[in-house]
Amino acid sequence: MTATWAQGAPIDSRQTAVSFEPAAEVGGVSGTGWARVAVAVHGVGPTPSPVVMRLDVAGYPPILIDFRHRAFESKLPIGGYPSAPESVLVHQARLAQGDAAVFGLPGSDLDKLLWRIGFTCFGDQPAPWLLVGERYRLQRWPNFVDLAHHMDHIRMSAALANGFHTADELAKAAGTDRSAAQRLINAFTLMRVVEASMTAAVPVTAAASADAPRSLFRRLREKLGM
User: Fold this and answer.
1) Rounded to an integer, what distance in angstroms lies between the CA atom of residue 69 and that of residue 87?
2) What are the residue ranges in the chain where pLDDT is below 50?
3) Which among 167, 37, 39, 52 is positioned nearest to 101, based on CA atoms?
4) Residue 80: its pLDDT value, please?
5) Backbone angles phi, psi at 153, to 5 degrees
6) Are 188 and 124 in contact (CB under 8 A)?
């Protein structure tokens, strides 16, 4: 459904005016909890997109997403929501051109929400939108200052900035386990900070590539004063 309201309308009335409808399954893929959210968000496509979404988390305040601004609003810090909620209902609506945001801008950076969801919701398994044989390379560095992270995430990001990798190749290049590499790729593809390729060449051997991300990591630490 399409929503239209005056630019000066109060925030609460803007939200009430939106005709949210249950999000459809994408490509026949369904899920529960945060996995349902991840599939619905990925189905929206690249941002900005004229779509708003409301996540009704059982027992917790709803979360609103505005894909035009890559922003979200929640009444609780993201860490206050459960990692495995009892249920999450996903509703969305398309907006008319010129419609105001459904919450006060700038809101919170959408990457912060998608990092939390994408890193945990599929466990150690590949996200359903990933294809066997794909390799991934970093296109945009996420703002790790706003994300809950540890040094392995920085090392893996440096490796992805250095070339295309599968989860197995990334784990070897960054000196970590496959589980961590797969979770990072799940999150990064949901955040759309990586590009995928079915034709990218196999990266250099693990022994040779291991030094590259660590060298990048050292330079990043020096730049950040770490």
Assistant:
1) 26
2) 1-11, 13, 206-210
3) 52
4) 95
5) -65, -40
6) no
pTM of the model: 0.82
Whole-number pLDDT of residue 9: 41
Asked if residues 90 and 55 have their Cβ atoms less than 8 Å apart, the reply is: yes
Q: Do you know the residue count of the chain?
A: 226
Q: Is 173 exposed, middle or buried (0-12, 13-18, 19+ CB in 10 A)?
A: buried
For residue 105, the tally of other CB atoms under 10 A from its CB is 11
Amino acid at 41: V
71-74 and 63-66: which strand pairing?
A: antiparallel
pLDDT in tens, 131-150: 999 999 999 999 998 998 99
Token code pair at residue 154? 């920085």
Joined tokens for residue 140: 């945009």
Residue type, 158: A
Decide: 37 and 117 in contact? Cβ < 8 Å. yes
| Residues in CB range of 122: below 8 A, 6 or more apart | 35, 38, 128, 183, 186
